[in-house]
Inverse folding.
């Protein structure tokens, strides 16, 4: 015996009255509720508003999982998570639903239980709490070929598509411990959980050997933080932030003798695209007085931060008179000026079916060991954060090779509107690495870069792409390193800062 799930759009269901054999609109709605037995908002929602007894009677889940879901929703301050769970026993209780009856009669198949699945379900995964391994249904088309079930059904002019076939449930003894996980609305809900990251602004202070990041409010009335001597600004890259990062670069800038003030800017690379983050960078710098024409500001940007900074300079500071703002030198390290194919790997790793598997692993931990309860909520938060960073990142979309943003950014015959120089630094992974690093490199070579030299995230050619004719490329002896090595390794950070200052007049 197995369970098959078919889906059709809600709009299609409401268009046809013949299927329900009633013309009264109230009857149609009533039958639609019966017809769509797996509809989170109608039947299987685990909601904080429902008493525990009702939760148990509807979902028939182990108590530990119900407790975990309720705690997770409380921790994330949401009414619904991006997934919901239903036990096999609860499904079997609903096998007399009208859809199952119609399909069994149409196909002459009483060995399969059929359910209608709402069309916004993105993935399904099975979890057998009695086993150590993960049961998995057949969510892809290739596996559907193994079963003698039509991929499409037509019932009274309505088309239904086969979405999922369960594993054999005949020998399942404890039907509460057979769980079906449904991924629903992963994008919208994860964004509401994680997407609360606002831009942040810091002054970086060196106190002896210690670096401190002192936050500066950017929501209060504007105040002038600029000085008449050179200043530096650090802008982070994708899936990162400036605070508590880049210590080697911060020390190099603070100890250079040139920069009398050093600042850091953190932006939300996932919630907003690069163009909007560039505009926000300009607002913050104007708010604090750092863009005043008579001042001097050098910007050191890593990865996506190099594009955010370029976007600000090209689109938000594109004035004919270069003296209308303070930016002298622009320094980009590991920035994908011509894009990066890493986005292709991201789509594979964070597909809805893979996300379902990750969540099942977390739920398994909770069931096996209650002591992992709150650690598992933390794991869930980390998963949501990674999904938000990678799968639904507007910044990542802009860094895709050939994106509209990059096409508009890389205009021919460009000259940056700055008073000093534009520098770029690009690394490629060398051969003198640890065994782990070599394995990681081979994996990336095979999955993503396919023979192109890279630093683990950005192709060597992209980080050194000549977006302006007067670009200065900073080379060291080998140009070898990983994506995190530019500003995190002391020797690299010191070398980059020294090369920039060699071409700039020193201010005492």
């Amino acid at each position: 015996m197995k369970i098959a799930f078919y889906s059709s759009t809600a709009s299609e269901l409401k268009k046809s009255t013949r299927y329900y054999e009633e013309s009264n609109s109230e009857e149609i709605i009533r039958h639609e509720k019966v017809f769509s037995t797996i509809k989170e908002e109608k039947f299987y929602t685990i909601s904080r508003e429902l008493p525990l007894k009702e939760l148990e009677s509807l979902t028939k889940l182990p108590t530990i999982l119900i407790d975990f879901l309720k705690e997770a929703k409380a921790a994330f301050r949401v009414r619904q998570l991006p997934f919901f769970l239903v036990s096999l026993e609860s499904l079997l209780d609903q096998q007399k639903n009208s859809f199952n009856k119609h399909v069994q009669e149409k196909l002459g198949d009483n060995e399969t239980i059929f359910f209608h699945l709402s069309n916004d379900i993105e993935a399904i995964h099975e979890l057998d709490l009695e086993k150590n391994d993960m049961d998995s249904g057949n969510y892809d088309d290739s596996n559907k070929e193994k079963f003698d079930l039509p991929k499409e059904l037509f019932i009274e002019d309505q088309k239904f598509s086969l979405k999922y076939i369960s594993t054999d449930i005949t020998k399942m003894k404890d039907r509460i411990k057979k769980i079906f996980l449904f991924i629903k609305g992963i994008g919208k809900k994860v964004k509401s959980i994680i997407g609360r990251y606002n831009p942040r602004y810091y002054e970086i202070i060196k106190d002896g050997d210690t670096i401190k990041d002192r936050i500066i409010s950017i929501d209060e009335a504007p105040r002038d933080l600029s000085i008449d001597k050179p200043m530096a600004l650090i802008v982070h890259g994708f899936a990162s932030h400036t605070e508590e990062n880049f210590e080697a670069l911060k020390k190099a800038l603070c100890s250079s003798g040139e920069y009398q003030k050093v600042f850091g800017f953190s932006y939300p690379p996932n919630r907003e695209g690069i163009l909007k983050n560039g505009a926000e960078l300009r607002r913050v710098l104007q708010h604090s007085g750092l863009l005043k024409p008579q001042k001097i500001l050098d910007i050191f940007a890593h990865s996506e931060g190099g594009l955010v900074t370029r976007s600000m300079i090209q689109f938000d500071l594109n004035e004919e008179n270069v003296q209308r703002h303070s930016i002298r030198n622009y320094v980009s390290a590991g920035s994908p000026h011509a894009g990066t194919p890493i986005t292709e790997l991201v789509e594979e790793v964070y597909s809805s079916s893979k996300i379902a598997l990750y969540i099942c692993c977390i739920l398994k931990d909770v069931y096996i060991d209650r002591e992992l309860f709150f650690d598992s909520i933390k794991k869930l938060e980390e998963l949501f954060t990674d999904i938000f960073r990678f799968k639904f990142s507007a910044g990542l979309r802009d860094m895709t090779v050939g994106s509209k943003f990059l096409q508009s950014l890389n205009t021919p015959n460009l000259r940056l509107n700055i008073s000093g120089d534009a520098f770029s630094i690009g690394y490629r992974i060398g051969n003198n690495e640890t065994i782990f690093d070599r394995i990681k490199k081979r994996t990336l070579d095979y999955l993503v870069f396919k023979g192109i030299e890279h630093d683990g995230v950005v192709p060597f050619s992209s980080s050194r792409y000549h977006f302006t004719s007067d670009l200065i490329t900073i080379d060291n002896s080998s140009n070898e390193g990983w994506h995190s090595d530019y500003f995190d390794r002391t020797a690299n950070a010191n070398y980059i800062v020294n090369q920039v200052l060699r071409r700039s007049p020193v201010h005492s």
Observations:
- Confidence is low (pLDDT under 50) at residues 10-56, 135-145.
- The chain is about 40% helix and 20% strand.
- The first helix runs from residue 10 to 15.
